[in-house]
Design a protein that fits this description.
There is one protein chain. By secondary structure, this protein is α/β, with parallel strands linked by helices. About 35% of the residues lie in helices and about 15% in strands. It contains 19 helices and 22 strands. The strands form six sheets. It has a seven-stranded mixed β-sheet. Strands 14-15-16-18-17 form a five-stranded parallel β-sheet, sandwiched between helices. The relative contact order is 0.08. The model has no long low-confidence stretch (mean pLDDT about 95).
Amino acid sequence: MKKLILGNAAVARGLYEAGCAVASSYPGTPSTEITEEAAKFPEIYCEWAPNEKVAMETAFGASLAGKRAFCAMKHVGLNVAADPLFTMSYTGVNAGLVIAVADDPAMHSSQNEQDSRHYARAAKLPMLEPSDSAEALDFTKLAYRLSEEFDTPVLLKMCTRVAHSQSIARLSDRQEPEVRPYQKNPQKYVMAPANAVRRHPAVEQRLLDLAQWAETAEVNRVEDGSDHSLGIVTSSTCYQYVKEACGDRFPVLKLGLVWPLPERKLRDFAAGVDSLVVVEEGDSFLESYCRGLGLSLRGKELFPLTGELSQNLIGEKLGLSRHMGSALTEELPNRPPVMCAGCPHRGLFYALSRLKCTVLGDIGCYTLGAMPPLGAMDMTLCMGASVSGLHGFNKALGADSEGRTVAVIGDSTFVHSGMTGLANAAYNQSRSTVIILDNSITGMTGHQQNPTTGFNLRGDPAGKIDLEALCRAMGVNRVRVVDPYDLKACEAAVKEELAAEELSVIISRRPCALLKYVKRQPPLMVDPDKCRGCRACMKIGCPAISIREGKAVVDAAQCVGCGVCGQLCGFDALKEGK
């Protein structure tokens, strides 16, 4: 059966058809939907892990037990999971183990633009890279065959456009593989130095064997063209752009296995064309390899290292007149992102802004606290860095920073990698104030559960971390909870904890306004006779409030009735509506 299917859903379908039994992941755009879709198959046990390292280790454990396993993450998540990744290359696997990593060219929802192909080369692991949904499904199944044939974890590299686009894929029935019996083998799985030394040669030989397989593998194919004056080497979504821009004019070497690469196939292809061009997003990964073979070519001197490519850009750089689509005649106005109407983080950030605090932030939808008019964030680096960074900041400046510098971190991010930073701050007696923004969900990636919510991936009751008890167990004596909709309480709590002579934690707790179970209050209404047009209500940056003809106006379709704006009005002009 054929079906129009999302790229991420196609990977999930591939997991199902390949007989995957266990999937453990951490949500991160653009990879999140893979595990969410996999959870729709009862044959696959699926879970959200606290972070990507834990997810990869869980998947490895399932593979060790003899069941096919999987984990998924976005590109920055692979940094977190790099520790087990490199050593798993030495141990190999028992049952098949597939690791999906989704890159985000142009940084649509990420803090950096990272090329994960380097991990495949550095860890000496095979990496498959699909270019559409059909390949996403087929390559997932192929990844399990390669994993078990070559005794290796296999990386499956997605990107935003492949993950979030739809194309036709052919669906098949699930093939349930036999459970591979676990056999005690410390020489293979106990990576003490003496054993690791003996495993390294096996890793190098495996790469040679995989490179030989790549020479004749169907995933690396040559598509001939009518004009051999130019040959194009490409992969992933760039293959789609090349075909749309060039049609069948030029020969194309389409690579599905991007590591290890087929040396002989690349040389033969180059020999059959007058000139060679490598078209790839991200770093000059394929280009550098080809140059290392002594091939003459063009690559990044034509195409940028940053952002995404497109049909038009490729056509332009290759000197083609064909234009894809229609160009906009006017430049569209910018639409900066803002926190949603009723967002529970808004009140807390308003208090921090009023108190002119230095705010070390973290990764989550609350990063939008950096946007005007609040402008209440000074730094965002990576998951968990707010807490560790605050400790270092205060230790460096001492009294010059203590009393006005805070860290903000979401509940999911705190469990991901903020706990160790707090443990460090408590252990080393940091005089710091950490604010945990507990909105009862993992908000930025689309409302996934986490260990603080009390529910698992499928929504069933699960173990729940008590944040207050956890913080106290780590050695934090001052722990308090505030309602971020209460502006006076937020400001008072921040003032008091900043004045304390010891480490303190403020938990700003209110569920995300977009959660289905959160009851919306009647939208507020503006009394035009009382409104003075002072714009005080605009200081919180709520998208439901605007100024028209000198008066405040509330959009009833957006307003959730949180009442935060009413606390700013000195003329009592904002009232509860119907």
